[in-house]
Design a protein that fits this description.
The protein contains 13 helices and five strands. Helix content is 45%, strand content 13%. The protein is of the alpha+beta class. A hairpin with a 4-residue loop joins strand 1 and strand 2. The model has no long low-confidence stretch (mean pLDDT 89).
Length: 284
């Protein structure tokens, strides 16, 4: 598996920026839509050789000035710039900002109160391993029928990547799998023992679906978006999601799901009009 997250991120972002976005001519001989290394080098005022070394992982400690120039050249957002900086800090294989503290599975009372207030909206609280710690009754009604909450410790990444039911549940399964791997790769990844153990497990149980994404998917999941879910009772749903990161001491994220269109809103209203279920805590 690749340990060159900085190079992977720079390459993926370079390939995502079109010449037109940075004021360059498109030209008829381009084999890909993104920028060439030579164009990034010119925009950042560095050598092509240096851009190549960064992408290939032969240099993993660019100066702050070079990082800023590359971020400008690649039109990075504020979140992407912070992520780029963190990747340079994580270039040391021994880097582990989490130390040896185990994954957080305690739900703070105020976070629990927030979940209570959100119901019947579908909302779920995850730790850094993607274990499902708590959720609203609306989330229970949404995902219980698809099997996501089966087992003593439900885990979103494990379900998406290894459960055969997931591919039928998510019509855009490839994108969902990309997002789950990106979320797991945030931070120290294999330098964090609990994450390394989960990665070893997924290497065996998910195989290429996991290992190929570790090598090719940048460690920056999207914080919001829309996905489709084929619900056995409510039909095809289009759900918008928003991810709220809790403070560093929690190392948890709250994902809130909202209807992305009128048909989904009506379907969720019908689903939530059924007999209400109590909020279910799943942390051990």
């Amino acid at each position: 598996m690749s340990d060159n997250e900085l190079g992977l991120f720079l390459r993926i972002r370079r390939e995502a920026v079109t010449p037109a976005e940075v004021g360059l001519p498109t030209g008829p001989r381009r084999r890909a839509a993104g920028l060439r290394r030579s164009e990034v080098a010119a925009l950042a005022d560095v050598s092509v050789e240096y851009v190549t070394r960064l992408e290939q992982g032969r240099d993993r400690r660019p100066s702050p000035q070079v990082l800023a120039a590359l971020a400008n050249a690649l039109r990075l957002t504020r979140t992407e710039r912070v992520h780029l900086h963190r990747l340079t800090k994580a270039a040391d294989p021994g880097f582990n900002c989490r130390g040896h503290i185990g994954p957080t599975d305690e739900v703070r009372p105020t976070v629990q109160a927030l979940l209570d207030r959100l119901d019947p909206t579908a909302a779920v609280l995850l730790n850094q391993l993607s274990d499902i710690l708590a959720h609203t009754a609306g989330y229970e009604r949404l995902v219980r029928p698809i099997g996501l909450l089966d087992g003593a410790q439900p885990n979103l990444a494990r379900f998406v990547l290894t459960d055969a039911r997931a591919r039928g549940t998510y019509p855009d399964w490839d994108h969902m799998a990309d997002e789950q791997v990106a979320a797991l790769k945030q931070g120290p990844f294999r330098a964090y023992p609990p994450m390394a153990a989960l990665a070893d497990e997924l290497t065996i149980t998910a195989g290429d679906a996991f290992t190929r994404r570790v090598d090719t998917v940048p460690s920056l999941p999207t914080a919001s978006g829309v996905f489709r879910l084929a619900h056995p009772e409510a039909g095809m749903l289009r759900l918008a999601y928003e991810t709220l990161e809790l403070p560093a001491d929690d190392d948890q994220r709250l994902i809130v799901h909202l209807p992305a269109d009128t048909a989904t809103s009506d379907a969720l209203d019908r689903l939530n009009s059924q007999q209400p279920q109590p909020l279910r805590l799943v942390a051990g």
